[in-house]
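Subject: sequence -> structure tokens, single chain

Hey, anyone have a minute? Need the predicted structure for the following. Not urgent.
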Amino acid sequence: MKTQMKNILFAAVLLMAAVFGTGKTYSFLSDSESAVNPVTPGSNETVIIEEFPDPPPQDPKDDPVYDKTVQISAPQIGGNNVDCYIRARVIYSNSDIGNAAVLEGIGAGWVQGADEYYYYTGIISEGQTTVPLFTKVRLDSSKIPENVSKYVEDFRISIYEESVQAGGCSDYKEAWSRFVPAEV
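Reply:
Had a minute. Here:
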């Protein structure tokens, strides 16, 4: 009976220690404070600006030249648009006619990479716009196969562009190599 009483007393002491210990532990884990976050999220937004007047019909045999000015801008979005590097790709709706397309008026600062992208070598900040990627498209009639010349009227040129943050990079090659493993 004495042993039974000791066991009951021991169990009661353990239970009380557990109850009081948990209360202190709980209050330690439930403390809270609030603070203002000084970091504001940045944004990396760019838009394509195109001027492309309706061209008059032209005979593909006359090496027609079409006005088309393409630039890329980092719009004003309340001071949150970060500095960035830009690259663009020219996509043709018809590859046969695309092989005959010659871009003219390529602006200083644009270089063509081995991956067929045009890279803008300067940093674009919020509210800035690149120099024109190109200003005209000429079709070299000697490169247009005879059987596809009828598709010149429906020929379209599309621009695809991307941007990466410039922070911490010494130039456009370093910035793009961080995101695209292929050589720029």
